[in-house]
Fold this protein.
Amino acid sequence: MKILHYFLFLALSFSVGYAQKTPVFKVVLDAGHGGKDPGKVVNKNIYEKDVVLKIALLVGKKLEAQPDIKVIYTRKTDVLIDLYERGAIANKNKADVFVSIHCNAHETQVEGAETYVLGLNANEQNFEVAKAENSVIYMEDNYKKKYAQYNINSPESLIGVSIMQEEFLEQSIQLAKIVQKQLTGVMNRTNRGVRQAGFIVLHQTYMPSILIETAFLTNNEERKFLTSAKGQEEFAENIAAAIISYKKWVQGKSSYVSPYDTSARSSRSRTPQHSTNHPSQSDLTYKVQISSSPKRLEAKGFNFKGLSPISAEKDGSIFVYYYGNAKRHKDALTLLSNAKKKGYTDAYITAFYQGRRITVERAKKLEK
Ligand SMILES: [Zn+2]
């Protein structure tokens, strides 16, 4: 339904000369840490949680002044929000971007700004940064249960990129690049670059997501700047400017589909034009459609939260990914529940007869 409205809106816009207002762009601002988790602590009285909250609130104020931006905060006060909950807030609000704001720390006087996207292209240095930010889970209730899939102390057990984050990686990197450009090009701070690492908070979201390490609280100059009203204002100004220019970039892309326009994806994948990697040998097969992406991903379990087998199909310019291969509908139901348990909550059962997509109702009849 949503995509229909969108096309209707487009048609209207063209006929009345863009008189309609543009869709609202939702930004989730995530001030790291909070409450009993101070984040990095320097000189016993300077807490990362306070600095990043001030910056996040200022960023929000600037963005709220834009007519077509809606700001959602994961926290506006000094409270601890679970990493899971932060992502859930962004997902529930169907945000267009998720921006987590932090301060860095090191035992040396190293300085500079770095911005992270979730990714496997991590090195030891990035791992240490992610580990520090992830360690908050130990303060959460039931952390063992909630974060069983993560071993945050092992660089070998890298946190895999979720299929949704993989889908938005290009956009996340673009946003991260713009942030770095603002913080280093405009603010003239040391550029530590766009990096990848396994941040749990970025693993929870279903939209382009970044984590900004604004500066080092352990560097004497940077700490002074970070804790000053002027410094916080400048960081906020430039982070807000980066989000606004990212919004222009992403909305200017002709192929832009909101991260939450799942109706667009499923309607596009209803009539497959060309099949690849079809393991189906016999005539009738059920598969669980778990995802679709403009990018080709290797159809391997590590790209799909360990689900296997995965098959891919090209539908126009979109790659559609399926999990499993069942002969009977009742087995497909088991596959579906597996996929949902792994976080593919929008997954659904599809059916093929002689390699062609058919309705599930028709497949059930053929089964008998
Ligand atoms: Zn932090």
The CA atoms of residues 268 and 296 lie 16 Å apart. The first strand starts at residue 25 and ends at 31.
